Amino acid sequence: LATEPIVTEGIVNAPVTEVWKAWTTKEGIESWMVTKTDIDLRPGGMWRTSYSKDSNLDDDQSIHHMILAFDPGRMFSSRTVKWPKNFPFANAISKTWAVVYFEPVGESRTKVTAKMFGFTDEEESQRMRAFFESGNKTTLDNLIKKYRN
After folding, report:
1. What are the tens digits of pLDDT across the range 35-64?
2. Is residue 135 classed exposed, middle or buried when 0-12, 13-18 and 19+ CB atoms within 10 A define those classes?
C-alpha cells in the first residue's frame, strides 16, 4: 500500500553494542553513513548530518533530525526537521519519521530493521517514497559492508 512504511532490513556481522554505537555516535556515524555529523542523543536532541566534509552542519546542504525516542541497543527514532535546500520533497519529508530496531542474532550479529513512516497518497510523497526505498537500502548496505569480514 502507498501509505505503508518503507521497511529495510539486514543482518550486520557485529554485536548489537557495536551496531548501536555505529548508529548513535559521531565516530560511528561518520564511519559508514555521512561525512560529517554531530548528535545530541536525548529525546528532543538534534542529530545534524552532511555528506560534505566542508559543511558547518548548519548550511544549505546539511540535514537535521530531531531525536524522538530511543531505547539503548534496541530502538532509535527520529524525524527530519531540516533538509538540503534543493531537496525536491520538502512538503512530504516534513510528515515522516523513522524508527530503527536493533535485534541481537546470537552473540556476534545484529538484525537491523529500519521503518520510515508518514507517507501519503499525494504524488510528492509517492515520489519521495521511491527515492527512500532505494536510498535506505543503500544506507543499510553501507552499514553491512562496514562489518563484512
Report:
1. 999 999 999 999 999 999 999 999 999 999
2. middle
Q: Pick from 12, 20, 10, 50: which is nearest to 33 by CA?
A: 50
Q: Are 60 and 83 in contact (CB under 8 A)?
A: no
Which residue from 142, 112, 141 is spatially nearest to 35, judged by alpha carbons?
142
Rg over CA atoms, the chain: 15
Place of cell 562489518: 147
Q: Cα–Cα distance between 11 and 113 in angstroms, integer?
A: 9
